[in-house]
Amino acid sequence: MRLLEAFRGPAIQLPNRIAMAPMTRGRADDTTGVPHPLTAEYYAQRASAGLIVSEGVWVHRTGKSGPGIPGLVTEQQVEAWRAVTDAVHEKGGRIFAQLWHAGRVSHPGVMGRTPVAPSAVRQAGRIFVDDEWMDTVEPRALGEDEIGEVVQDFATSARQAVDAGFDGVELHGANGYLIQEFLARNTNLRQDRYGGSVAARLRFPLEVVAAVADQIGAARVALRISPGNPENDIVEDDWKEVYSRLLAELRRYELAYLHVIDTPEAEALSHLRPLWPGTLIANLRSEEPTSREEGESLIESGLADVVAFGRLFIANPDLPARFALGAPLAAADHDVYYGARLDGYTDFPAFDPDSAKFACSARS
Ligand SMILES: Cc1cc2nc3c(=O)[nH]c(=O)nc-3n(C[C@H](O)[C@H](O)[C@H](O)COP(=O)(O)O)c2cc1C
């Protein structure tokens, strides 16, 4: 199986091509943004993944998107993350921190301030705040000086991530949060250096990459993108041009990898793969979780070097072993995806072949 083959890229070397996709689980202390003590065990249980990408972690409290999301800013947070990375490394794994600023996809009820964004364009829909869904609010457009401060927040958090023992950072440029809000025409109405032309809309994402690469070295930096993804009320009808130009700019760095979220039709991957000679991780968004068969075909076709699996990792901590054995896959209830509850977090067992054999012989 191709997914089980080792991967040797210029910047990352992995024992298999199965990555754990970043997944917010909402278990951190909501006041301090410190990850829950069980977080170390949660990720250590999943250390057989070729690479773990952590849940999105905020680089500034204003960029926090919902309850129980951890940060990577304070010393207390860094200490708690160090326990997580130690636990993963002890199990022989590798873990990148996903650095996240939610931009307008937040609420004063979540982080105490008016959310910030490239422009004062409210997101359609509702947002989960403190146990209930509420109307979104109009964000405040960032001033030009403030944009530089947010760039610095990413760089500072990247340094904290390395201090906390992460093997690198993945910048969250997908799913309608701050970085993609700068890229998309419907959320970026600015007429200054950061908006208007495609080149101007690329400026903020590229400044973040440059500042973070400068801080920790490009080989430890990755970027996640989701071209054309309408999530969180994004309209990107010009994604081909925007992302082709983004990749042309990024090629000057030897980044750890580019992480592309696409639909199962793989239109964005087909367009962008020829433009990206570096390491590419792919992940599919659809009703059903990305499957082993889809992963195999992404590698076979050359569209991806590594495939990220999200939902399957929630209930199958030993996903690579299950793929290898063709073992049954467990499913997690949606109710346990997020929240302060501790069930549905570290209590999914690894597959036990003996009890499966017993179950089979008992049935026959
Ligand atoms: C519970 C949950 C939380 C998620 N949190 C994040 C996140 O923090 N950052 C991110 O980039 N994507 C996040 N995603 C999206 C996943 O990384 C992935 O793109 C999506 O689940 C599709 O992959 P899958 O079909 O393998 O689950 C989340 C998805 C789920 C189900």
From TrEMBL:
<feature type="domain" description="NADH:flavin oxidoreductase/NADH oxidase N-terminal">
    <location>
        <begin position="12"/>
        <end position="326"/>
    </location>
</feature>
<comment type="similarity">
    <text>Belongs to the NADH:flavin oxidoreductase/NADH oxidase family.</text>
</comment>
<dbReference type="GO" id="GO:0016628">
    <property type="term" value="F:oxidoreductase activity, acting on the CH-CH group of donors, NAD or NADP as acceptor"/>
</dbReference>
<keyword id="KW-0560">Oxidoreductase</keyword>
<dbReference type="InterPro" id="IPR013785">
    <property type="entry name" value="Aldolase_TIM"/>
</dbReference>
<dbReference type="GO" id="GO:0010181">
    <property type="term" value="F:FMN binding"/>
</dbReference>
<protein>
    <submittedName>
        <fullName>Alkene reductase</fullName>
    </submittedName>
</protein>
<dbReference type="Pfam" id="PF00724">
    <property type="entry name" value="Oxidored_FMN"/>
</dbReference>
<dbReference type="GO" id="GO:0005829">
    <property type="term" value="C:cytosol"/>
</dbReference>
<dbReference type="InterPro" id="IPR001155">
    <property type="entry name" value="OxRdtase_FMN_N"/>
</dbReference>
<dbReference type="InterPro" id="IPR045247">
    <property type="entry name" value="Oye-like"/>
</dbReference>
